[in-house]
Amino acid sequence: MLAHTHICSGCGRPALCGLAMAAAILGWAGNALALADGQLEPFASYAVTRDDNVFRLSAQSDPASLLGTPSTADTLSTASAGLNFDVASGRQRFVGGVWVNENRYDLFTVLDFTEVHGRAAWHWQAGDAFNGRIGATTDRALASLANVQGGVQLGVPNALHTRKAFLDAAYLLTPRWRLRGEVNRLEQANAVAALTVNDMTRDGVGLDLSWISPAGNQIGLALQAQDASLPNLQPVGTSLIDNSYRQARVRLVTDWTLSGHSRLIASAGMVSRSYVQQLPERDYETGIFHAAFEWKPTGRFTLLAKAQRDIAAPDEVNAGINVSFVLEDIIALRPVYRVTEKVSVSGVLSLSDWQYLGDPGQALGTVPPRTDRMRNLVLAFTYQPMRALWLDMTLRRETRSSTAALGDYEVEVASISARLAF
Description:
By secondary structure, the protein is mainly beta. Helix content is 7%, strand content 60%. The protein is globular.
């Protein structure tokens, strides 16, 4: 049973008490440490979210036997506190932040969790022709409860620790030609023992060559290679499978301003993945594309249209599940309308098809092929009565159909939040 496994002490609302304390401390920090032009920003926020299907269960599931309660709904309270910085020193710039989210559920207290997030980057400049970034991120949060492994939804909260480090540099060979290179590392570690087969370290390198027009438009060629190590072997039947892989992309890329009101960012090419240790029949190659079109007919309205087909990044789709991968086809629209200087309305309408590939169980015939279709509808309202205060309300409906048994679900989520910067 997952409900009622944690009892709060003290006032019964530790998140609210923690927020008040954090606000007091950050308010003092803002007065004591504030840099010029708001470069150091302590902040605090509080959000209340109502979710009618927390564990993303299929309508065919019996929540009473799985969760210990007939209800699949709960209310989540999230208190957050953090510090952002944006500091310039000559031509160098240092940006980042650190924040903590204290999540507390009314019913499913087994999901109570303190998230920790951090970002830091140095945007460096050496002369007029040489620039780049050095940075790192860290995130420790619960992985999505909609994650799937072997066609079975996970009703177990899993703390997923994701760390990234990156270095990129760009050099203007001539005023019209730019060369850019990058190296990066992604690490993921799962807390649930059954999921440690997904722990991964992935190293990547990239090289881009772009031509830049007098108007600043760009077209070029981008190459990328990745080498991923999954050190914990996956048991499949009587075999232990090494899911380490190599992946390569080659793309033509462009970033083109079509008019004073529209811009196109697009790429097209090929991606290939090979499993270098075992079951090479899982090797895969396909054509890919990304296209994002931004239209700003007025100063108040923006429409972003997106379409893509690619292997999804490990920290974007099915996050934390690395023994297989997802080929994602997506189309999405995101309109934003600024009603006044203080009020804006935005939305998201998206349709995604996910094809699960690379699972060793599929290659061995123990796991059937799987495809999902995701539909998302989001409506958001933002009110900023003063420079340092934001009030938000978000409504979201999400549905998933699946060829996997019990892989489908529907969920409606509503949230309100307030954020105060000091």
